[in-house]
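hiii so um. not sure if this is the right channel but i have a protein structure encoded as tokens and i wanna go backwards to a sequence. like what aa goes where. can anyone help
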């Protein structure tokens, strides 16, 4: 069945930071844990929810731990393409793209020795919906699963295909049904997976320790014996830790610290473009910004390119559509054409349009989370002030921002700053952020669109033909760029820094895959 609702989720809606900062862990870094075992210390960018059941967890930083403990049916490679992991190969597709038959590898085992079976995969697909977890929307297009035998599973989607199924949904993280359902609470805090590392120790708001699974079923054997994750959402603290050698690697390098670390002896930097979309949205429901000419005027009033170069040039790249460049590389939409359609910096044109289409006392309210998006809002306010208008910038905590931007009330805002992250399918951005069913849920711009705009978005997600989906999406993207319900801003990079004795580390486009410590294309070690 079609997916009718997508909830706001932490893995997709990008907050500016977490509320709780974990303490840094002192001790022997990079050399061992006191008993001769080599331990890799990784300092995360933000705090975790400390839930490690993949069926329940919807937090990117908990998933950085989860992805080492569990295997997926398929997993993203370093180019955001799903590759078989617990599956033997590509599925058999039947019934016009609504039935998938998966074959599993034989001999894959969980950490307790139980074999991974089709029943476990079926449970992994259906549990999020049956238990109404935050991940339900990622699987509720599945109508039925049928275990054919221990190594074959049939998945039926109902009457219509689901476009992103082969690019995303098949990458389900597989859990052991019997262990998980026997004691769900214990499983969430001490999970059992089939991955290259096992849970070893865990302290709330302090650290998670993993140890190598020496009986890993796959041919891959991790070089690292132990891994310790520490959450540290203070930028200065993370930078200090890596410079002083108090950690082996960190995630999340602030723009202003990039050059500092680049010149730091003994430190290496890593970066990969992420599938993230930072944007400024306009209230198209009420008030002056419901007029597209006012939206164009605001876009003309400042230079997004100059802002990015001066505030985020080391860790972000400009965007010209709601589809991130790393996703556009897979689909090939005409990004150069979209760039030409976006309003260029032209304060005279901005002033002329506002004089014609906005009230004389126009001073829009911009709501934003803290950080670089506040800086962008303030830049816009400054440029509007220079042409005789201005803006009221309100920096809100993330929970208040979410409650406010979905109202559609012009008294609450005329513009808001947010970010979104997804995967290699345009549906992850176009459906939740632009389809009319998501107004007041994942979006606050309430864009009515042209005839067929919303129908095309829905039709594209219910098609298994990628060429047909491209033809539906391209005019939708073009309309967004021309009518500006949202103004694309930039895509963030996933960045890491490590001491130079760390070998084989790579930044992955998908934040939940960092750090990838063992894969077909890398195996991290410390030398």
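sure thing!! here u go:
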């Amino acid at each position: 069945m079609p997916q009718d609702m997508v909830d706001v989720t932490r893995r997709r809606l990008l907050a500016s930071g977490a509320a709780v900062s974990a303490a840094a862990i002192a001790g022997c870094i990079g050399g061992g844990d006191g008993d001769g075992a080599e331990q890799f210390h990784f300092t995360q960018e933000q705090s975790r929810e400390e839930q490690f059941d993949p069926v329940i967890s919807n937090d990117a930083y908990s998933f950085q731990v989860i992805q080492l403990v569990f295997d997926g049916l398929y997993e993203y490679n370093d180019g955001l393409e799903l590759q078989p992991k617990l599956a033997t190969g590509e599925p058999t597709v039947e019934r016009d793209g609504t039935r998938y038959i998966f074959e599993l590898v034989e001999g894959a085992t969980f950490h307790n020795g139980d074999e991974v079976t089709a029943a476990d995969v079926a449970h992994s697909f259906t549990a999020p919906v049956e238990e109404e977890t935050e991940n339900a929307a990622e699987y509720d297009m599945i109508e039925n699963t049928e275990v054919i035998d221990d190594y074959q599973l049939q998945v039926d989607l109902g009457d219509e295909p689901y476009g992103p199924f082969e690019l995303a949904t098949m990458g389900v993280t597989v859990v052991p049904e019997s262990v998980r359902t026997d004691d769900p609470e214990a499983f969430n805090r001490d999970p059992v997976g089939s991955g290259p590392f096992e849970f070893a120790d865990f302290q709330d708001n302090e650290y998670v320790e993993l140890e190598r699974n020496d009986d890993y079923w796959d041919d891959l054997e991790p070089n690292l014996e132990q891994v310790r994750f520490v959450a540290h959402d203070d930028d200065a603290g993370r930078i200090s830790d890596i410079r002083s050698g108090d950690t082996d690697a960190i995630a999340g390098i602030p723009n202003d610290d990039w050059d500092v670390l680049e010149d730091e002896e003994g430190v290496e930097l890593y970066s990969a473009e992420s599938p993230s979309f930072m944007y400024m949205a306009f209230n198209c429901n009420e008030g002056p910004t419901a007029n597209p000419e006012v939206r164009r005027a605001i876009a003309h009033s400042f230079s997004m390119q100059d802002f990015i170069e001066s505030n985020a040039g080391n860790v972000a790249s400009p965007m010209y559509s709601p589809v991130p460049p790393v996703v556009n590389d897979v689909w090939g939409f005409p990004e150069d054409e979209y760039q030409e359609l976006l309003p260029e910096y032209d304060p005279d044109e901005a002033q002329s349009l506002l004089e014609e289409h906005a009230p004389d006392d126009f001073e829009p309210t911009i709501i934003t989370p803290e950080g670089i998006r506040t800086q962008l809002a303030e830049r816009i306010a400054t440029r509007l002030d220079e042409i005789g208008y201005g803006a009221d910038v309100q920096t809100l905590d993330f929970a208040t921002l979410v409650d406010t931007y979905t109202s559609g009330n012009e008294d609450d805002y005329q513009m808001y700053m947010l970010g979104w992250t997804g995967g290699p399918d345009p549906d992850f951005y176009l459906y939740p952020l632009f389809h009319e069913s998501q107004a007041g849920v994942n979006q606050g711009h309430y864009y009515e669109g042209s005839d067929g705009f919303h129908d095309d978005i829905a039709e594209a997600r219910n098609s298994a033909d990628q060429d047909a989906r491209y033809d539906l999406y391209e005019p939708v993207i073009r309309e967004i760029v021309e009518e500006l319900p949202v103004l694309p801003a930039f895509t963030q990079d996933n960045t890491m820094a490590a001491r130079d004795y760390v070998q084989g580390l790579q930044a992955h486009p998908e934040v939940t895959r960092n750090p990838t410590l063992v894969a077909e294309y890398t195996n991290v070690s410390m030398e």
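oh and Residues 1-10, 15-29, 31-36 have pLDDT under 50 and may be disordered.
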